[in-house]
Design goal:
single chain; 286 residues; alpha+beta; seven-stranded mixed sheet; four-stranded antiparallel sheet; binds 4-diphosphocytidyl-2-C-methyl-D-erythritol; binds adenosine-5'-triphosphate
Amino acid sequence: MTTKIYEKAPAKINLLLDVIRKRDDGYHEVEMIMTMVDLADRLEMEELPRDQIILSSQAGFIPLDEKNLAFQAARLIKERYGVTRGVYLHLDKRIPVAAGLAGGSSDAAAALRGLNRLWQLGLSTAELESLGAELGSDVPFCVRGGTAIARGRGERLETIASPPACWVVLAKPPINVSTADVYGRLRANELTRHPSIPRMVEAIRGQSFADVCASLGNVLETVTLNRYPEVRQIKECMVKLGVDGVLMSGSGPTVFGLVSKESKLARIYNGLRGFCKEVYVVRMLT
Ligand SMILES: C[C@](O)(CO)[C@H](O)COP(=O)(O)OP(=O)(O)OC[C@H]1O[C@@H](n2ccc(N)nc2=O)[C@H](O)[C@@H]1O
Ligand SMILES: Nc1ncnc2c1ncn2[C@@H]1O[C@H](COP(=O)(O)OP(=O)(O)OP(=O)(O)O)[C@@H](O)[C@H]1O
């Protein structure tokens, strides 16, 4: 009988995203506060009798070859640790693609965590995070999970307390936004207003939902909102429908609204569905 294991790959949201400067290596020095929501992909991993990586998925719209981040993660850990066994990966895709929710990064992180178990490599979380950094800036956080301040290009992590429990309404307009393009259009040296990390950390430490909502901020928002009016429209619509806090996640285009009262959700969901097909109501993972 072959061994089969599963890993959950949750989506992330950026409660705060600040850019400090553009670096010489083309990346931007960032300061972010990231957390997970309970919208997740599920990655199944099963030993293969031959030395090969095979990936399948029910989703017809993602690459299943070496372009897929879960495939890349399996290849990286296999080659780095000289594993000669193979693996069959099956990805049950639930997180919208190219949404600013780190779906691909979380799949890669799930593959690293899972294959460390399946192949009994005994790697620490820190070792898995540093392998993850070779795959993408969001992967180390996705390996670790929870809530964290991320610095550097996103790979230097400091775990903090979870934000107060609340509902998260996610709305993704039907457009594709390239992360590289959004960072490329940002004029980091011309930013005059920066969201405050200490203020958000204090809001979370004090478990003040109102202060968390008031401290949300993302300097990439202006770039994406100016380029894609539909993202701005979703943000304005969320405000009108009465969400307590609203922000674009990552480089977009997904906008999330934080809501404390369950009784408000139906109206917000129905109002958004009026002009946006992809709307999800999930919980913050605390
Ligand atoms: C927007 C966020 O998702 C917020 O969490 C991340 O900052 C981006 O994370 P990611 O998608 O994992 O990004 P990567 O795959 O590492 O990089 C994609 C591209 O985004 C730009 N990039 C990314 C991260 C960063 N700190 N500075 C950048 O300028 C670079 O042009 C890079 O070529
Ligand atoms: N496992 C995967 N799941 C989804 N897309 C993937 C995966 N692997 C590679 N991709 C490719 O990566 C691109 C970005 O997908 P992804 O869903 O990870 O973006 P994202 O949520 O915007 O990421 P981030 O928030 O980290 O910028 C897509 O165009 C897709 O073709």
